[in-house]
Design goal:
By secondary structure, the chain is mainly β. It is 0% helix and 54% strand.
């Protein structure tokens, strides 16, 4: 059993206007999950990207447009969106305050490919 106190978890700038706090990943001992939270300023979020694994994106507070493939939905607090593996998706804060989201991926290492780049973005690789 691994017990983690999140009070002292580091928060980092994922990109301008988006702060991220890792909750579980390969670096914290997870073997099959990556869980992180993000706080996004108005108009900001995650650009269109994909992962090789399923993801659940949950809006904790605020309002977001979430796109998965060709579908777009408006999501508020306590709404989760299941993103199938290998499908382009992203989200944007459409509210006036900070958007707080929690993401859970079915892999312990965050790895994503972005639509507008040939670069592979890898984070939290041990």
């Amino acid at each position: 059993m691994l017990v983690q106190e999140h009070e002292t978890d580091a928060t980092e700038a994922w990109r301008d206007g988006v702060m991220t706090k890792m909750r579980a990943s390969a670096l914290t001992g997870a073997r099959q999950l990556c869980i992180f939270e993000q706080w996004c300023e108005p108009g900001l979020g995650a650009p269109t990207h994909l992962q090789a694994v399923e993801e659940v994106l949950e809006v904790v507070s605020g309002q977001a447009d979430v796109w998965v493939g060709d579908e777009i939905t408006s999501a508020g607090p306590n709404v989760s969106v299941l993103v199938p593996a290998g499908v382009l998706h992203g989200f944007k804060n459409t509210g006036e305050g900070i958007l707080h989201v929690r993401a859970t991926l079915a892999a312990p290492i965050f790895e994503a490919s972005y639509e507008n780049s040939t670069d592979l973005s890898r984070r939290y690789v041990p």
